[in-house]
Amino acid sequence: MKKNFETIFGLAAQVSASAPGRVNLMGEHTDYNQGFVLPTILPLKTTISIAIDPSVEGKIDLFSVNYQERINRYLESQKSKHWSEYLVACLQQLKQRQIVIPGLKVLVESDIPIGAGVASSAALEVALLKAVARLLELNLSDLEIARLAQKAESEGVGMPCGIMDQMVVSLGRNNQALFLDTKNLSFEYVDLPINYHFAVIHSGRTHTLTKSAYKQRRQECETAAKLLKVASLREVSLSDLNFLELPDTLRKRVLHVVTENQRVLDTVAALKENRFADLGQLMNASHLSQKNQFEVTIKETDLLWQKALNSGALGARQTGGGFGGAIVALVPSHVLKSWWHSLARDLPQATPISLNWSADTARKIAIS
C-alpha cells in the first residue's frame, strides 16, 4: 500500500490503520433493541493509509484499490449513495467535535466482501477513524471510535444500525467472542473453542441494508415497544408474551427479539462449558426464528443453512442483518475439509468468507 500510495498521490503516506470484519455468532436484530449480542472478528481487514494534503482544507482525495476508483469529496458536500459517504460521515462526526479536518489523501484497500453481512461498512469507518486519530494525535479510545462510527452510519449515511458491528470491529480480539450488552455497552471476552470452527459462507446473494426492509423491522420493533409501554424490547420477557396483546406481525417480531436475547445468554454458557451439541441447536433455533418470526432470511440462505447441516455441521444460522449475505456454521475442525467439499459440491454458488485456509485453497478443495 505504501508503494501504491506514492504512485497514486505523489507523496508518502503518513499513517495507516486497519480494522477487521466480523461474524455475529448469536444475537441478530437485538442490538438496536438494547439486547445482547455475541460477535467475533474475522481474519479479513480493511486498511486505510492517509496523508495531509495542505492544498485545500476539507477536501478528501480518495482512492479505492478494490474499485480502482478515485474521487474527490468535501465535508460540506451533499449526501450520495457512493461508498465514500461512509468516510465523509465519519469525518463530519469529528468536525462536530470542533476538530479541524485538513485536506486528506486517503487510500482504501480491503479483502472484506461487501454485502455479505460481515461488517464491511463498520470496518471502513473504524479504520478511517483510527487512522485520522493517529494522524491528528487525537485522544480517542476504541470505545469512542466505535460510538463515532455508529453515529456516522446512522446519522450521516442514513442506516439506523445498532452499535454491535462498530464495537467488535474496534475492540474485538482474535479467537475470542465479544459478549456485549448493548444497553450499557458492558462487555466480556469469551474464548472460542479450539477443536471447532465457525465457518462463514456467503450465499451468493448480496444485500444492501439501506435498501432492504431492515428499517421496517426496526420501526416494527419500536412500534411494538411503544404499544407495550416499554423503553425497548429488552424489557420484555418470555412470560410477558402470554399476557400481551399485539398485532400478529409485531408479536412475531417481539418473540424473535426476546428469544434471541435468551439464546445469546445460553450460547455464552454453552461455550464456557464446552457444550457444543447444545450450541449447534441454539444456532439452528436462531436461524428458524429469523426465518419464521423476524422474516429476514431468503431462499438462498435457507438452502445454504440446510445444506450446511446435511453436510455435517452441528448447527448453523444466518448471520448479519439478513435479506441476503452469509451463514455461520459450527463444524468440528477435523471434518472441516470434507464438510466444505460436500457443501460446495451441492451449492457451487456458495463462497467461503472464513475457513481455516485461504479462499484459493477452499476453491481447490471444492473442485477436487
Question: In words, what does this structure look like?
Answer:
The chain is built from eleven helices and eleven strands. The strands form two sheets. Strands 1, 2, 3, 4, 5, 6 and 7 form a seven-stranded mixed β-sheet that branches. It folds into two domains: 2-191, Ribosomal Protein S5, domain 2 (2-Layer Sandwich); 196-367, GHMP kinase, C-terminal domain (Alpha-Beta Plaits). It has helices at residues 2-9, 85-96, 120-135, 142-157, 164-171, 214-228, 248-272, 276-292, 299-310, 336-346, 359-367, and strands spanning 15-26, 36-53, 59-64, 69-74, 103-110, 176-181, 186-191, 196-202, 315-319, 326-332, 351-354. The protein is an alpha+beta fold and 368 residues long. Helices cover 40% and strands 23% of the residues. The radius of gyration is 21 Å and the shape is globular.
Primary descriptors:
single chain, 368 residues, alpha+beta, Ribosomal Protein S5, domain 2, Alpha-Beta Plaits, 7-stranded mixed beta sheet, 4-stranded antiparallel beta sheet, 11 helices, 11 strands
Please write the string of helix (H) and strand (E) elements. Answer: HEEEEHEHHHEEEHHHHEEHEH
Strand content: 15-25%
Query: What low-confidence regions span 5 or more consecutive residues with pLDDT below 50?
Result: none
Number of strands: 11
Biggest sheet record:
7 strands, mixed
